Amino acid sequence: MDQSIRNYLVVTGGYWAFTITDGAIRMLVVLYFHMLGYSPFEVAMLFLFYEFFGIVTNLVGGWLGARIGLNLTMNIGMAMQVVALLALTVPDAWLGVAWVMAAQALSGIAKDLNKMSAKASVKTLATDCSESSLFKWVAILTGSKNALKGAGFFVGAGLLQWVGFRSSLAILAAMLFLVLLITVWMLPSAVGKMKSKPKFIQVFSNIPAINILSAARFFLFGSRDVWFVVGLPVFLYDTLHWQFSEVGAFLALWVIGYGIVQATSPKLLKKRRQGQGPNASSARCWVFALALLPASMAIALQQGWPAGQVLIVGLVLFGIVFAINSAIHSYLILAYSHHDKVAMSVGFYYMSNAGGRLAGTVLSGWAYQTQGLVGCLWWSASFVMMAALVSLALPSLEQATLSESP
User: How many Cα atoms occupy the beta-carbon half-sphere of 344 within 13 Å?
Assistant: First the structure.
C-alpha cells in the first residue's frame, strides 16, 4: 500500500474514533443532566466553554502543529479527550456546573486539536493528488466524521441505558486510549511540521482568500447553530411534545445524513472533470441557495403550516445544502493554503468556524427565549446572507495563488 494512503487511513481512523467519543459524550451529558433536573437551556449552556475554547485552540493549535508536527497535536488532542472523559466519572456530588463546564472545555480543546490536525494532514499527505482527488479525500474525511458523530449520539445513549453513566465514560476512554497508542506507533513524526519555526503572529493569515473564506465560515456555522443547538430541540420537546429520546434520535439521524451528503458531495457536484475541484463560484452559488431555506421555513411557520412537517422537510433540505456548502469550504481552505503553512491556515480558518458556533449557540438561547423558533430562523437566514455577501469577494484559486505572500 502507498505510504500516503496508509497514513491517510491511520489519520482517518484516529479521527473516526475520536469523533464517536465526541458525539457520545455530548449525548451522555445531555441525557444524564436532563435526568438530574436541568432544563434544556441549562444543559445547552454546559457546552458554552466547549465552543469558546475551540476558538482559542484553533488559533494556537495551527501554530503549534506547524512547530511540532500535526501527528503530535492530534495525539495530544486524543490524550486530552481521555482525561475529559475520565473527569466526568467522579461522584454526583462533584458534578456541579463548574466541574462539567471545565470538563467540556477540555473536551472542546481536544476536539479542535484533533480536527485541525486531521484535516490539515490531508493536504500534506496528498501532495501528488489532483484537485478532484484532494476534494474527494477531504469530503470523505469530513463527511464520515459528521456521520460518525451522529452515530456517537446513539453510542452514548445506548451505553447510558446498558451500563450507566460512569461505566460508559470509562469504556469510551479505554477505547480512545487504545486508538491513541496505535496512531503514535503508525504515524510518521514530522507530518505538517514547518522547516522553520513560525512566530505566533503568523497564525493570523496574510492570504486574503483565507481571511475571506474564514469570515464566510463564521456566518455559515453561526446560521446553523442559531436555531439547531437550543431553539430546535427545545421546540420539539416543549411545543411538539416529542419525547427526549425522540429528539435525540432525530438530531442524530440528521447529523448522520448530513455527513453522508458531505462525504458524497464530490459526486453530487460533478466538478471532477479534468481533475478540477469546486471553486469560488461554487461557494457563492450554494450559499445563496442555502439562504432561501430558513427564510422559507420561517414564513411557513408564520403562515400557520404544520410545524412538524415544516421542520422535518426543512431540516432535510437545509442539511443537504448546508453539507455541500461545508464540503466546498473544507476543500477551498486546503486549496488556498500553501503546503508548508497548511496547519496555521487551517487553524485560523477553524478558529472562525468555532467563533461562528459560539455566536450561534449563545444567540440561539437568547433568540428562542425572546422571539421563538421563527425568530431563530430569521436570524439563521440573516447569517447565511452575510456569508453569501462575504463570499462575493472570494478570488479564484489562480488569483489566490498569484496574490499569496511569500
Answer: 22
